[in-house]
Amino acid sequence: MSQRNTGVTSQVVNAHACPVREVLDRVAGKWSVQILVAAAHGPIRFTELERSIDGISRRMLTLTLRNLERDGLVTRTVHPTVPPRVEYELTSMARELYATLLSLTEWAERHRVTIAEARAAYDAEHAPELLDV
Amino acid sequence: MSQRNTGVTSQVVNAHACPVREVLDRVAGKWSVQILVAAAHGPIRFTELERSIDGISRRMLTLTLRNLERDGLVTRTVHPTVPPRVEYELTSMARELYATLLSLTEWAERHRVTIAEARAAYDAEHAPELLDV
DNA sequence: CGGGATCCGCCCCGATACTG
DNA sequence: CAGTATCGGGGCGGATCCCG
Hints:
The structure is a homodimer of 133-residue chains. Helices cover 53% and strands 11% of the residues of chain A. Chain A has 133 residues and is mainly α. Chain A has one domain: Winged helix-like DNA-binding domain superfamily/Winged helix DNA-binding domain (Arc Repressor Mutant, subunit A, Orthogonal Bundle). A 3-stranded antiparallel sheet of chain A has the order 1-3-2. In chain A, strand 2 and strand 3 (85-90) form a beta hairpin. Chain A is elongated and about 60 Å long. Chains A and B meet through helix 1, helix 2 and helix 5 of A and helix 1, helix 2 and helix 5 of B. Chain A binds a DNA duplex (20 and 20 nucleotides) through residues 5, 7-9, 29-31, 45-47, 50, 57-63, 78, 83-86. Chains A, B: This is Helix-turn-helix transcriptional regulator. Chains A, B: InterPro entries: HTH_HxlR (IPR002577), WH-like_DNA-bd_sf (IPR036388), WH_DNA-bd_sf (IPR036390). Chains A, B: Keywords: DNA-binding, Transcription, Transcription regulation.
């Protein structure tokens, strides 16, 4: 099967499942969201993305951009100038998605502390048994 | 460092980054969302989850539930009856998250066709070069 | 400048078997 | 019924080098 790999396992299998997975398969990659954020305010060049994201490798930047382009979330425009100039821009579809992600951001910030506490409590409850005795 | 693995790489590194990643790290797992969906309407037993999700292994069901529990998204209640009876239930925090996921669902369904077309176009444009010559 | 190609480690997840 | 333990594959992502 000549199906390309987009980032998270199995497109085919989960197709029938809830559509949320479709979104997640597209956005759950380690860098996808940060790229969308960085490109949210207008066209941006490859190197600008590379510097603004911090920690990303050229490889992953390229791969993630390709996947986003493939899914119609970003457009890639090549300006055939002497030093090559490539600009990436969000599609309207991607800008809608970006807006939607904001409600997730909200949720995360509202419950960030609670989650941290829940983790600490869980770890305190389950880890010591290994060291204690 | 005794930090547990929750599903998607690096908690520490991305802590400073956008909080969306925090949510995704928690939900991007292959089964997390389906479990949240299955448990959305009320307490549900382990085996009920296992049967209602279809395709999930006992192992992954357990692991994903543990992570959700650790993050405070589900509660685990053990009834010490003769055949053991364990019920999982969403916390209010998780129900809020579930509601938020609905806007993602919407987005996915609105653009599902467009995305599929974008993919087909991209693949048609980039794949043939390998076979053609 | 904007990539592509390759090698490799790590973690996610599946399959199977065993337990209280 | 509700898990745990172990083995193993696959793919995501990092590092490095090379190209037009």
